[in-house]
Write a structure and sequence with these properties.
The structure holds 2 protein chains of 2 kinds. In chain A, 71% of the residues lie in helices and 0% in strands. The two termini of chain A are 30 Å apart. The N terminus of chain A is likely disordered. In chain A, helix 9 packs across helix 11, helix 10 packs across helix 11 and helix 12 packs antiparallel against helix 13. Chain A has one domain: Orthogonal Bundle (MetI-like fold), CATH 1.10.3720. The N and C termini of chain B lie far apart (47 Å). By secondary structure, chain B is an all-alpha fold. Chain B is elongated, with a radius of gyration of 23 Å. The mean pLDDT of chain B is 86. Classes of the chains: A mainly alpha, B mainly alpha.
């Protein structure tokens, strides 16, 4: 969702950081909710208490958010156990679908996987295992899942990291110029293009991109990350990976950049018409300078927060793109594990994807303390 | 009729009609919103008329008459798939499923989101706190990951697809509604209602809900496209109901049967463009609605 309109942009209370976690929620959060009797009782006290003492404010702020994240992480572990052990049923049935198994063999397999233990024991084992990095073994590859993840993480980070940087730069650049000249041909054209690309399903866009650039024009490889024939030295490998990277990154960026465009545009629109811009113009600054040195820095604040929040999706945001291009990353691993079915891998990746998002949101909130002085003062 | 006294109900109805007319005028003034609305109208009519335009037998693999992945021809204006079925027929019929799932999932999500949002904002206390934290937690979780994980263990059917999509999309509405509930609650007329002895139920349904609804409507129009996109992604990954035809499942078959390497552009373009157009139309309507309820976005300075 691009809820393109953090319109009430400045939510000046302690709640501001929470607003940042949700683009849409921020849109209409009232700026003075502290008055009604029952409703706001949840936030009001903490905001009130931390008001006077600035020095200990950060400690309390940090503690509150770290605590919240810890609870969220615990909930993720609970829910993954619930989903994959309780709803999903007996993994032995799935493991032994194709061959007949004697009851003794079944019992041996259950003992090996720890399924003969009572449920609470299984949960404790699962918790300690996950926390110590022992994620179990993949059914599909017969290898520790931890190694699989470590092996595939770089490919995912390369694809979505590159795509994300490009999308943010492109979105900011176009968004700033669009917002500054609202209603111009540039603005309308770019907003329309962005929205059309944003409406395209990622997997379909990827297929079309492959069809046009790889099949018809033959400019880029169809899928994968490297060709087997490339010489093993560093530079040939780098060029080869770069060559393979172009189409996936193109697809990823095309779908995502419109979100940043709209956010940057609307937060610039919030600044336009402010008195300080009139002052800047009255000083005789050129239009370009007013935009670059006065409007953009202020408009960046809400946008940068959103970028930090979006960083959480670097690990899991490219699942579909990776699958279209058979990119050997975590997303492809996740999708392939659905159909094997390789439940330990699904479970481990579910936890990894969810917890990475929770941790990035936490980092964004902590960073927000330093970026936005309003939180410190509240 | 000669009565001069106006009943409260008639008054209320007249006022509603008036504000509706005002909103409609504001909406009509926006060209993109109108374009989106017309597009949606055409698509909905086509989806409803699909059984009349193309008999259902056109979807049957055994009764297919065309060649294998044949390019567009006079008989098959959009070509055929790997079993010889008309792509045009598939795309037409696919619209029914994609729209149905997108709309149902959104309605479910909106109902849950609104109920939780209003009650958590109005009642507050520990219940409000728990509801807020829970929706926060759901909001942070990556929705596609959760949807895939749940579908992988729950099995593939239309009902599970709808449930899963609704489950990942309600928290946005909750936050929106809760925030709006808190503003509405601080208004004097609610104090008046309370002083006159209105109970929680009366306050929530008669005073808060009508004030929250316009916003909910605007956010719902923006939820539908994301639900449709989510459905198509899940179906393309092979997690859709195997017995029905939706745009995502058509594209799933296209990738499985090697349409890309066969250069079968006619197989890929129609369903994908259909998704794009529907999503775009909903987004245009949603943005226009947002502007109606939030005049600052209309570009008036």
């Amino acid at each position: 969702m691009t809820d393109s309109t953090p319109s009430e942009g400045a939510a000046p209370e302690g709640a501001a950081s929470e607003d940042a976690t949700t683009a849409s929620g921020a849109a209409i959060r009232p700026s003075d909710v502290a008055s009604p009797a029952g409703g706001a009782s949840t936030e009001a006290p903490s905001a009130g208490r931390s008001a006077g003492r600035v020095s200990s404010g950060f400690g309390r702020y940090l503690l509150r958010h770290v605590g919240g994240a810890a609870v969220s992480l615990l909930l993720v572990l609970f829910s993954s156990f619930f989903i994959f052990r309780l709803i999903a049923g007996d993994p032995i049935d799935q493991l032994t679908r194709e061959r007949p198994v004697s009851p003794e063999e079944r019992a041996a397999m259950r003992a090996e996987l720890g399924l003969d233990q009572p449920m609470w024991q299984q949960f404790v084992d699962y918790l300690t295992g996950t926390l110590t990095g022992d994620l179990g073994e993949s059914f599909q590859y017969r290898r520790p899942i931890f190694d699989l993840i470590v092996e595939r993480l770089p490919a995912t980070l390369l694809l979505s990291g590159t795509g994300m940087v490009l999308a943010v730069l492109l979105g900011f650049w176009i968004g700033t110029r669009s917002g500054w000249r609202q209603g111009s041909r540039f603005d309308r054209g770019h907003v329309a293009t962005g929205l059309v690309l944003y409406s395209a399903p990622t997997f379909w866009l990827g297929m079309i991109v492959i069809l046009v650039f790889a099949r018809y024009l033959g400019l880029f490889p169809v899928n994968g990350m490297r060709s087997p024939s490339t010489p093993p030295d560093f530079w040939s490998q780098a060029v080869d990976i770069g060559h393979h990277l172009v189409l996936p990154v193109l697809t990823y960026t095309a779908v995502v950049y419109a979100g940043y465009l709209m956010i940057m545009r609307s937060s610039l629109l919030d600044e336009i018409g402010s008195d300080y811009l009139t002052t800047a113009r009255a000083k005789g600054l050129r239009d370009d300078e007013v935009r670059r040195r006065h409007a953009v820095p202020n408009a960046l604040l809400p946008t940068v927060t959103l970028v930090f929040l979006a960083l959480g999706s670097v690990v899991n945001g490219s699942i579909v793109t990776e699958t279209v291009f058979s990119w050997p990353g975590l997303g492809t691993l996740f999708v392939n594990s659905i159909f094997y079915p390789d439940r330990p891998v699904l479970q481990a990746l579910f936890v990894l994807f969810s917890s990475s998002t929770i941790l990035t949101v936490l980092c964004a909130e902590i960073l927000y303390w330093f970026i936005d002085p309003r939180i410190r003062r509240s | 009729m000669t009565t001069t006294t106006v009943s409260p109900r008639a008054l209320r109805r007249a006022r509603r009609r008036q504000s509706l007319a005002r909103s409609w005028a504001a909406y009509r003034a926006q060209r993109t919103g109108m374009v989106g609305l017309v597009l949606l109208g055409v698509i909905v009519v086509l989806a409803l008329a699909a059984p009349v335009l193309v008999p259902e037998s056109a979807l049957s693999v055994t009764q297919a008459t065309g060649g294998r992945m044949a390019p567009p021809s006079a008989d098959f204006p959009l070509g055929t798939d790997e079993t010889g079925r008309s792509i045009l027929a598939l795309t037409l019929w696919g619209s029914r499923l994609s729209l149905l799932i997108g709309l149902t999932a959104t309605v479910v999500a909106i109902v849950i989101g609104t109920a939780v949002g209003i009650t958590s904002g109005h009642i507050g206390g520990w219940y409000g706190w728990v509801a807020l934290r829970l929706s926060d937690w759901f909001m942070v979780l990556p929705s596609l990951v959760v949807a895939i994980a749940l579908l992988a263990v729950l099995g593939r059917s239309m009902a599970t697809t709808i449930t899963v999509i609704a489950l990942v999309s309600w928290p946005g509405t909750t936050r929106l509604v809760r925030a709006q509930t808190l503003t509405v609650q601080s208004r004097p007329y609610l104090e008046r209602a309370k002083a006159l002895g209105a109970g929680h139920w009366h306050q929530m349904t008669k005073h808060i809900l009508p004030n929250v609804l316009p916003l909910v409507l605007a956010s719902a129009t923006l939820l539908v496209p994301s639900a449709i996109l989510m459905e198509s992604s899940l179906a393309w990954l092979g997690l859709g109901d195997p017995s029905v035809v939706s745009w995502g499942s058509i594209l799933n078959r296209a990738s499985d049967s090697g349409a890309v390497s066969a250069h079968a552009w006619w197989y890929l373009l129609p369903p994908g463009l259909a998704i794009l157009v529907v999503v775009l139309a909903f987004m245009m309507c949603g943005r226009a609605l947002e502007a109606v309820f939030n005049p600052r976005l209309r570009g008036e300075r």
